[in-house]
Structure to design on (245 residues):
């Protein structure tokens, strides 16, 4: 069983009547154009793109992220993150986008992209068991994944606001593959240095086995981040202004 609670801090943007005049538009379903524009827009995340509701992505502040992984799994953990920063989002490279056609209500769209580096840093509280090792800590977590290949699948829906149609993601699902992961949990076992070093070494030496068990919970949490980001942008742009005529 896993439980996820996720909260974001976004700057509030006024609803935009249209895309900026210099922003390229794509015909519905034009995968090559969508790929080009998506990569151009995400690169602006280093400083934000206020006109369309894209916040500064590096870092992206996440106020609260709770993950519970348990049941029959050999990894039984409760991890509570608060005011953590996620970095690396603006360095995403999209390599495939299929969907976003004119039939956007209940449409399925797939994104494929890669992160060179994705880092999550900030306060954590953790308790539970990993394989045969009991764990407990309350401090600063630093987790980094490298060369992440992501498949993100969404289903969109139509939302009507003030007489205009908008596209929103209704459901989303994510899978990822990473060849390398490092993690450090500060202040494990109330600051016991020997136990803390042993436990961090155990996490890093056995990260593949641990990730295999906790991956569904991580995937769900990251999918929620993407869904909130994309919906924040799409809620600022009426469907009629989103695509080229």
């Amino acid at each position: 069983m896993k439980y996820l609670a996720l909260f974001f801090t976004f700057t509030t943007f006024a609803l935009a009547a249209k895309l900026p005049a210099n922003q390229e538009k794509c015909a519905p379903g034009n995968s090559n154009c969508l790929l080009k524009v998506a990569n151009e827009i995400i690169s602006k995340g280093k400083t934000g793109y206020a006109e369309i509701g894209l916040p500064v992505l590096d870092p992206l502040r996440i106020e609260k992220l709770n993950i519970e992984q348990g049941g029959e799994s050999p990894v039984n953990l409760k991890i509570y993150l608060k005011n953590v920063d996620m970095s690396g989002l603006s360095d995403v490279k999209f390599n495939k986008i299929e969907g976003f056609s004119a039939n956007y209500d209940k449409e399925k769209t797939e994104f494929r992209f890669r992160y060179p580096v994705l880092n999550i840093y900030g306060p954590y509280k953790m308790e539970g068991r990993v394989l045969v090792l009991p764990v407990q800590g309350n401090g600063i977590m630093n987790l980094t994944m490298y060369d992440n290949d992501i498949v993100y699948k969404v289903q969109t829906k139509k939302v009507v606001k003030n007489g205009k149609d908008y596209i929103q993601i209704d459901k989303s699902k994510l899978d990822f593959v990473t060849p390398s992961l490092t993690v450090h949990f500060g202040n494990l076992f109330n600051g016991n240095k020997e136990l803390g070093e042993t436990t961090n070494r155990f996490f890093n030496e056995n990260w593949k086995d641990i990730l295999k068990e906790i991956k569904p919970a991580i995937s769900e949490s990251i999918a929620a981040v993407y869904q909130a980001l994309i919906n924040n942008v799409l809620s600022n742009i009426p469907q009629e202004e989103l695509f080229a005529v």
